[in-house]
# Entry
Amino acid sequence: MAPVFLFRPPSPALRDIIACHQIIRLRFAPDQAVPIKAYWPRPAMALAFYPRDAERVRLIGDKAVNHKPRAALIGQPTMMAHRQGGRDFSVYQIELCPGALYHLTGIPAHRLTDGYVDAEAVFPPGFRALVDRIEDAEDPEVMIALAEGWLAAQRAARPPSLSPATAWAARALGQGAGFSLDALSHHANMDPRQLRRLFAQHMGISPKLYARVARFDRAIRLHNRQPGEDWLSIAIAAGYYDHQHMARDFRDFTGMAPTHFAALELAAPERMFGHRES
# Structure
């Protein structure tokens, strides 16, 4: 079976809650060691389905290895996690727009930062039927249609709960806008403390940390697209002052120097099939 790497934008009606559909399926031979994915922090929360073998996950600095449920709500990551699937690994991950997880569940996003929760324990009982149907589906387009239909109904059933100010701030920071908290607050016509509190509730972390995570994610993706580029050029293009400024984020988020993390990223499971995150 050929590997599957499918990335789809949402239907126009769901662009306010879905950023992207991602479906990946990889199969490894019995004599192959299943590689570990060094999953770096990125500005994203998700609803993920694992229709085949379960995924195991371990955060850096943590000895415990946990198994993901067959459907998981994944919070905002701020530290690298080691993820390892089975020999028949399939994940359908719906990357959510900033604040959408809070809108869909009412769970303050900071409770899920660097973690996940069984989605079947959060959503109404009818969600289990959706998970069953996605497990039975082989066609990625069928999976997407099923999920979008359920999410559209779920969104319509909940009153609006997301502050436009926090959604705007997250988009601006995610795109690399160099706003201070005071500037963000002024633009949003909101007290800085109120914006910081709402931002943590909706996005899981502070505006400052969110901006750092977004910049770090840009640096890694730039390096994946331009592996021959020197790290100083990558740092400047991503929005860092210099190499040391970037290296500090690598230490904080992965516990590694940039070159060491890059070597680990080269061993990611998708690389065996000619794909790279960029």
Notes: Residues 207-225 form the longest helix (19 residues). The chain has a mean pLDDT of 94. DSSP finds ten helices and ten strands in the chain.
